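BACKBONE GEOMETRY TOKENS
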Amino acid sequence: MIQKHISYNGHKSAKSFQFAILLIFLLSQIAILCGGNAAFASGLRWPLDIEISPSGSYGEFRGLRFHTGTDLRTRKQTGFPVKAISDGFVSRIKIQHRGFGYAIYIDHPALGIRSVCGHLEGFAGKVGEYAKSKLEKMGAFYGIDDSFSDARFPVKKGQIVGYSGETGLGPPHLHFELRKLNDDTISPSVAGYKIPDKILPEILAIYFEPFSFDTRINGHFARFSLKPEKKSAKLFVWKNPVTIIGSAGIKIGLTDLAEGGNVLGADNVKLFLDRKLVFERAFNTISYNENNEAPYVFDYHLCQKKGTGSVYNLFKWPFEKNSISSEYKKFEGSLYFETSGTHDIEIVVRDSGGNEVTASGQIEYLTGIVQPPSDKSKTTGLHFNCMGITSRFRSDENAETATISFKIAGSTEKTFPVICNEGICEAAFPYSKDLQNGVFHKGTPVLPPLSYVDSKGGEAALNKSIRAIFPAESVNLPVLAGFSEVSKEIKTQLKKCSKIWTFSPDEILLGKPVTIEIYDIAASISRKLGVYSVNSTGNVSHEGGTTGTDCIKFSSRTIPTLTVLEDSICPTISYLGTRNTKHYGKVWAYKVGDIGEGVDDEGYSILINGTKARFDTDPDKSELYVVRPSETKSEKKAGKSAIEITVTDSAGNKTTIREKR
């Protein structure tokens, strides 16, 4: 019938048919890319019947990883029914001490997706009976990770599968996650969910990052940032054009508050240049294998600073391999032009609730024009960026000077670009191996000796006191690197056993962990020593550390300001009272504290009347729960139980209390 219809209507009908086939094909492909979005027309339900209020969103930055689900608030309570979002079957349950705690995985084959609910108080129905029976046989509170066929535990849409809780990490809430059946996660908005959210994102800052060692942004070689003016709830602008000479990239810092003061992330960020879309960060699907790529989508170091919010890179690094912007080529989204001119910039941010805000302004692109600094800074010193080093030093060169000849240690003279103004010169140096022995201007050092490290790996050391060992492929872009000593007060009761070291480039982010070895230690090498990071206010945080024969070392993808401290302070134990809990029954609760390396997960020994007791811990609350034994009538008449609790921290310090309960 279709062929006959086409022959009678000629070329026009043939084109209509071809268009229809093409449209059907495109729609099917969109459905596949969206995790089967077309199938969601029948409607998915939320796993909770209470108000849907997010405390965490899909794709937001969590340190060095993505958050791949939506955290739903549960009124700071536990025990709300958690229901299946659609027909399917329980494909897996997992019970672990940390992580998701009690988690249930439900496959929905008709939709091609899997739903995950974590931090549950417990499972419902036959699944709950199965888990309880197995734990009892194991004599444990955790340790189940079982998968099932579709016939074992089928579920219907709206069926209660568990109850909200606070097991694993964090306070009471429900972690709700959607995945493809291959376990790649997908955004709830892709599946047709609309997150209830009436609060618009706030744009905090726009950053312009140099992509060449000699790029000038507003008269300097360094990164430039600005705070846009809020013209309305949805519009932020900067009035004065940002001048750029060379290649640069844009980053945006923003925050998106949720009810209750929680902070969410963006669902989509787009960069428009002269009203044309040039780059997009679309958080539609994320593989767990891509978690190490999170610091390339975000600026890790800027995100750690107070008041910056989440900072998104609106360009693609050459070493990026994640799916969030897979369609773009390396450095796509960057700003570079062959001729001078003024260009319009527009950044559109959409959150998971569908709220959109825009930041707009202009850049003035210049070619071959030398400008003095827009501010008349007198500060000297070094500034490291992703492509090179800026050195500010005192000089009598005039503002018209475009380049200066420098003496390279162990070599000849070489010319580098400079910007000079009122006795201060700012020189730009690339990360080049021939500069690693230092650079001088008129006999004055302007660049200290540094170690050249590239993708082959290498080593950066300082006076045999401290060194960094870079494995191959740990450095994404070549650097000149080194350590320097810092003089500052630190706030701690622990004994300081080494100098305080800072590393340059201070904002380095590595593809693989680097190993730091510290040798200059004013204490004997022992388990009590640890590596601690030191923040700008002098507060310290334990980073880890293992002992060698003559040093202490630790590994990390970032290199903070650090020192070595000795932890000789024992943990503290204090009684909180009796409680009646769901998983343990009646317990004695204790507060356990430690100011150094923290309590060892295996560092608990509990005896009741000389017999090993069952117990559990909640590291989030620093609490210990000792399960009270069942008592016979004769035992009750006998009086109180003798309790002995020993807690050992990770430095080997031990505290023991003995009491009657």
In short: The chain is about 10% helix and 45% strand. The CA atoms of residues 397 and 420 lie 6 Å apart.
